[in-house]
Every structure is written in structure tokens, then in C-alpha cells.
Design a protein that fits this description.
Length: 449
Amino acid sequence: MHDLLPTRSTLPLHDVAASRRIETRALTHAPDLMERAGLAVAKLALALRRGDGPVWLACGPGNNGGDGHVAARRLAEAGVPVHVGLTAPHRPALVVDALLGLGLNRAPSDALLATITALQACGAPILAVDLPSGLLADTGQPAGRLAVRADHTLTLLTLKPGLFTGEGRAYSGRIWFDDLGITPDEPATADLLGPAGRPERGATSHKGSHGKVLVIGGAPGMQGAARLAARAALACGAGRVYVDLLDQSPNEAADTTRPELMRGRLDDVPQAVGVVGCGAGTRIAQHLSALIRQLPRLVLDADALNAIAADAVMQDALRSRRTGSTLLTPHPLEAARLLAVDVAHVQADRLAAAQALATRLNATVALKGSGSVVASPGARPAVCASGSAALATAGSGDVLAGWLGGLWAQQPDAAAHAVACAGVDAHGRAGEVPGVLRAGDLVERLAAP
Ligand SMILES: NC(=O)C1=CN([C@@H]2O[C@H](COP(=O)(O)OP(=O)(O)OC[C@H]3O[C@@H](n4cnc5c(N)ncnc54)[C@H](O)[C@@H]3O)[C@@H](O)[C@H]2O)[C@@H](O)CC1
Ligand SMILES: Nc1ncnc2c1ncn2[C@@H]1O[C@H](COP(=O)(O)OP(=O)(O)O)[C@@H](O)[C@H]1O
């Protein structure tokens, strides 16, 4: 059993169907799985309980409840007072939520909602077994109007996507993992991203070795967005970064506080990685067709995505680009526009939405937000476990787009999917601070070795 985040390597995620298959096969040679699960829960409960009061184990009707009953027995054997039931004991030292796990298949009944409310109100820390009760394992969305908001979740046997995307991070608290001694014999449903190395800088390399980025955006009043993207591309290590601001005369500096940044246009750097759309407003629409046609590698963000959502011809042009050469970085609303659905639909199943968009536009999609999802046509999707609400601030997405452009410039042979996985994870890790991170400071954190 170990504390899972931050991840140290890429790990497999398994959805409910895959987890069930793994469990069924495992039971043939390890029939004591529930004993193992209960023991793991008891061990963690011992470490987490606060004070000498009873550990309250709220056990449901299925095997999740079964894990809870085993844990209760183990705790009692260790001399810990336990209370098994659906109503709260006096001053519990810990609540073990073993109401519902993988088997959740409908909105919790009123009786269950009453127990969830009681365990939430009793004041003790909550340890959820496998999943917070009421949270859907595949999507990270509550099945009904309430799910348990746990302080800790000990997930068992497999890692479930819903712990890491959607609302998963808000409901799961600190995530622990015990594989119960079983190695999954099933392909991953998705990857949980681990840290990726930075592009190497050879001792004899020169600026020409590290590629070029062209940032196109910054309509009147929004130049900051394009400059943040450009600074991020530069901080990432791109050899040269050019900015085509949509509101300035070409003679003005790209960024007076970053003299390293140059002015440039598509015709000046036709082989650059394009980072298009940051603060670009509606003006970007008139440039997009040429950019989509000519730039060999494209990161499309913000207003570029909105323009594409409104233009079927542009969508066709995007589809006809080489697979692996386009990277879209929508937040949920931009993704909803591109898919012609509402945001709730995107958030209800972020993995499915990202995959649908990737297929529809023949592009890699980094669907942003808590638990960003990277999807590409025909590839296994990835979920990003890094990041925090410190990133919920204007400009952090522009920094991501620029960083991705900078990474790609240095790895011309990389497909968009690999670039997106590496960049989204690095961006998330740099954004793990308490409080709020200003986007300019995020660039500096990303740049730090
Ligand atoms: N079988 C084993 O040996 C193992 C089982 N494990 C545990 O088993 C769990 C899965 O067990 P189950 O498949 O029994 O599923 P659950 O225990 O999650 O729930 C199944 C029961 O809850 C009911 N239910 C579903 N949604 C409900 C709702 N909204 N309101 C009221 N009742 C609802 C179902 O009809 C069913 O009776 C895992 O999450 C994990 O905790 C793991 O520990 C691995 C080992
Ligand atoms: N609560 C959160 N947890 C993790 N990451 C977050 C959270 N809120 C925002 N982010 C990240 O911050 C970035 C915000 O991007 P975006 O919405 O495009 O902002 P902007 O347009 O202001 O730059 C994305 O990378 C997103 O994944």
C-alpha cells in the first residue's frame, strides 16, 4: 500500500469493466482477495484514526461492504473499538466508508443518502474503500445528488479513472493504492501520467538545434495571453520564439520585458511550431486557413478553437492534416463548442468527450481542467493526475499552449500525443502550490530545473 500522488511513473488505469475482468481472473488463484482488501483497509485505518473513539465502518450490501466487514474484524482483533452500522456512534475516531464501490449503478437511495449525510457530518476523518461512495469509477462524477467527500481513499486492485478526472480529485482526498498482490493482466483503459524527462540539450547544440515557435494571437487588449505563451515556449527551451501580435504595428517589440522574443510572421518562419489562438479574439479566423494549411505542427488554443467550432470548412481542413501534427488544448467550454454539446455533457464523461473530439477532428486533444485528458485518434488516452486549483487563474492555459509549442519545437519527430502528455503533466506539477499561482510565475516554476 502506498500514497499514490505525485506519480513517479506512468501507471495503468482500468475502468469498471476491465477491473471486473481482472478481479474475476485473480479470484481463481487468489480467493482471499477480500481478506487482503480488508486487511489493507484496517492497516490504513489504524494509521489515520484520530483519538480513542470507535472506528465507524459504514458497510453497504456488496463486496465493498464485505471489505469493510473484514476491516472491522481485523481492527477488533487489534484491540480497536469498532462500530459497524449505518448510523453514527458517539465521537468516532475515523469513518470507513464501505457503502458502495465499483458496483455503483444508480443514484443512491434516500436511505443511503441519509448515511452519507451522517458520516459527512460526524466530524471524523473519512477513509473511503476503493472509491468514495456515490462516485462513478469511470467518469469521476457523482451518480446522484450526493457522494462521499473523503479525506482519504484507499483504492484496491486497480486504479480507476474516476478518481483522477471529473470531480474525482474533489471527492477522493488523498489517494492510496494497494494492488492486493495482483499484477493486472488486462490492457490499461487509459494511462495515468508520470513525469516525462525534458528534451536533452547536447553540449555542442546551438539555438538552431532547438527549433522555432511562432505564437499567433494577442488581439487588442489581449496581448498578454500571447506573450505568456511566448514566454513559456522560450522558458521551455525553444531555440527561437517569434510572436505575431494581431493588434500591433510590426515595428513594436514583441515583449519589452522579454527582449529575447522576436516579431515574426508565417512567411518568415514557415517551419515553426505554430501556437495559435491565445488572446486572439475573432480576428484569428481570417488567418486560420493558411496556418492550418501551411504549418507542419500546430497547437491550437482558445479563440482558434472557437473559430474552428464555428466553421465546418476549417474543421474539414483540420481533419485532412497529417495525423499527429495537430494538438488542440480546449477547456471544457471550448470542447463543448467543438462537439456542439453543452459543458455538462463534456464533463459527464471527460475521457469519452476527449476521444470523440480527437476522432472527429483527427487531432490530439488535451481536454483541460482537473484531471486533464489527452486523447488521440487510435491511441490509448491519458489522464493527468498533477495540477491543483492554483492553476484556476487567467493565463495558465496560455502558458500550457506555449510550453507545448516549446517542447514540440525541440522534438520535431515527436507525435502530438507524446508532446501533450509530457507538457500537460509538467504544467500540472509546476502548478501544485497552495493558494493561487499567477500565470507569469507559473512560467518561472516550469522553467526551474
Ligand atoms: N470480490 C473481491 O474479492 C474483491 C472486491 N473488492 C471490493 O468489491 C467492490 C465491488 O463489489 P460489488 O460488485 O459487490 O459492488 P458494491 O459493493 O460497490 O455494490 C454492489 C451492491 O450495491 C447495489 N447498488 C449499486 N448502486 C446502488 C445505489 N445507488 N444505491 C443502493 N444500492 C446500490 C448493487 O445493486 C449491489 O447490490 C469493490 O469496489 C471493492 O471494494 C475489492 O476489494 C477487490 C477484491
Ligand atoms: N482545479 C484545477 N485543477 C487542476 N488544473 C486546473 C484546475 N483549474 C485549472 N487548471 C488548469 O489550468 C489551465 C487553465 O487553462 P484555461 O482555462 O485555458 O485558462 P486561460 O484561458 O485563462 O489561460 C489548464 O491547463 C487547466 O487544466
